[in-house]
Amino acid sequence: MSNSTSQYATPLLPQTTEDPQENAIPQNGSVSGAVFNISTTMVGAGIMSIPATMKVLGIIPGLIVIVLVAVITDLTVEFMLRCTSSGKAVTYAGMVGESFGSVGSLAVKICVITTNLGVLIVYLIILGDVLCGNEYEGTIHLGILQQWFGIHWWTCRTFALLVVALVIMLPLVMLRRVDSLKYSSALSILLALVFVVICSSMAVTALSSGKTQSVRIFPDFSQVTALDLFTTVPIFVTGFGFHVNVHPIRAELVKPTDMSSAVRISLLISVAIYFAIGFFGYLLFGDSIMPDVLVNFDQNSDSSFGRWLDNIIRLSYALHLALVFPIMNYSLRANIDELLFSKKNKPPLALDTPRFVSLTLVLFAFIYLVAVAIPNVWYFFQFLGSTTVVCLSFIFPAAIILRDMHGISKTRDKVIATVVIILAVGTSGIAIWTNLNGSSAD
Questions:
Q1: Can you tell me the distance from the alpha carbon of 81 to that of 74, in angstroms, rounded to the nearest whole number?
Q2: What is the first-listed, main subcellular location in coarse terms (predicted)?
Q3: What are the angstrom distances between the C-alpha of 216 and each of 199, 204, 223?
């Protein structure tokens, strides 16, 4: 009787190893939507620092570094996609957890939360600078609202950021599927292209009238040291660091295998935008280029038309950042939820309305309050590119290939992974050391 009962009882309680969150995600995302979302993640706040890197590296080495980081990014994302296809995990932390256990999974969550939280705070700070002004090296720069309407309580950072956050960003962060952000991401990329077109037009006009600045093709070692060159690498690494969004975007594609194509198209778009902004921005301002090129645009023109163009550039970039915010917030929210509720048998976050809304609002309020209370976290952001972003973009994917829990790594893969880790650790260590020495000297 016990054997018979056992035979009939088994089908009544079917066992499944599938992740319920994977089944809950509608797989109707498009390749174009994936391209827009990936490209938007890459073309974020970092693009305004690219011209300054050209000043340090020179034009040709700058292009080489951009292409090299893009190639390494493509390799590491391919590592991630292969491991995800071979395993059962549907998140970045879960994928690393398959190879390195709970410690590896926790390390990924901490890195994602630290990185994205820092990036989103910086986004709001930049928005506040553009709209309400800031102080740079003892010089006060008025924001667009203050230039247009004067200094009032409603043009201050606290109120202006609150309006932008509630009107533009909050409706977008409340969307529950990453593919739903494809239209805002497409608009974000369009605004970045507007900046490229205006900047390049201004540079060409200045060139034709002989007003462009002299640029360096190669580094000038009379002004920079060899170690200074490494401080530019974290900027590019941060720019190309979209790895935290690989799994959410892939999970919604009709054909997950299309993710590789979407990644390569996005990398080509981002490389073109980065180099165009770097070259034309450096050509326009030369050695007077600021770490944030937006500062140059608010003091460059003495004509009404020039000031009009400057305002368009600054406003388009501010809106661009507001539209990048939701895609970065998506992976931040998902990892915090995974950290807090993964072991409590909760339904997927998108299906649990009270949990989704409360977590979203708490995060949103925290980011806003920090951005208003701490108007300058640039040093923190600078070190993110040398630490947590490097781990997420290069070290973790390469370590998974070396661990090879699924038996998919070839000798070539392991050699590439080893080189990637050595380059990542070496360049990051030098960049951190150089930045610390620079900070001490200042």
A1: 11
A2: membrane
A3: 19, 17, 12
CB under 8 Å to 331, separation ≥6 — which residues?
112, 116, 244, 245, 248
H or E element in which residue 3 lies: helix 2-12
Token couple for 148: 């247009």
394, 426 in Cβ contact below 8 A?
no
The answer to whether residues 28 and 179 touch, using CB atoms and an 8 Å cutoff, is yes
Nearest Cα residue to 41 out of 314, 321, 394: 321
pLDDT digits (tens, 9 = 90+) for 175-221: 999 999 999 999 999 998 888 888 888 888 878 877 766 778 888 77
pTM of the model: 0.84
Q: What is the CA radius of gyration of the chain?
A: 23
Helix (H, G, I), strand (E, B) or coil at 134: strand
Q: Which domains does the chain have, with CATH numbers?
A: 31-441 (1.20.1730.10)
* 366 against 131, higher pLDDT: 366
Question: What are the percentages of helix, strand and coil residues in the chain, rounded to 5?
Answer: 75, 0, 20
User: Alpha-carbon torsion 309, 146, 191, 276, what sign?
Assistant: positive
Q: Which of 269, 220, 237, 238 is nearest to 54 (CA)?
A: 220
Could you write out the DSSP letters of every residue in 21-46? HHHHS---B-HHHHHHHHHHHHSSGG
Amino acid making up residue 189? I
DSSP letter at 377 equals -
Task: Output phi, psi for 407, to 5 deg.
Answer: 65, 40
* Rounded Cα gap, residues 58 and 63, in angstroms: 9
Element housing 141 (H / E): strand 139-141
CB 319 within 8 A of CB 73: no
CA–CA distances in Å: residue 112 to residues 12, 157, 178, 432: 40, 27, 17, 20
Q: Is the CA virtual torsion 19, 34, 78, 42 positive or negative?
A: negative
Q: Which residues of 351-360 are buried (b: 16+ CB within 10 A; e: fewer)?
A: eeeebbeebb
Within 13 Å, how many C-alpha atoms sit on residue 255's CB side? 7
Residue 277, H or E segment:
helix 259-285
Residues 6+ apart with CB under 8 A from 46: 235, 236, 238, 239
Per DSSP, the residues of 429-442 read HHHHHHHHHHHHH-
Q: How far apart are CA 428 and CA 442, in angstroms?
A: 21
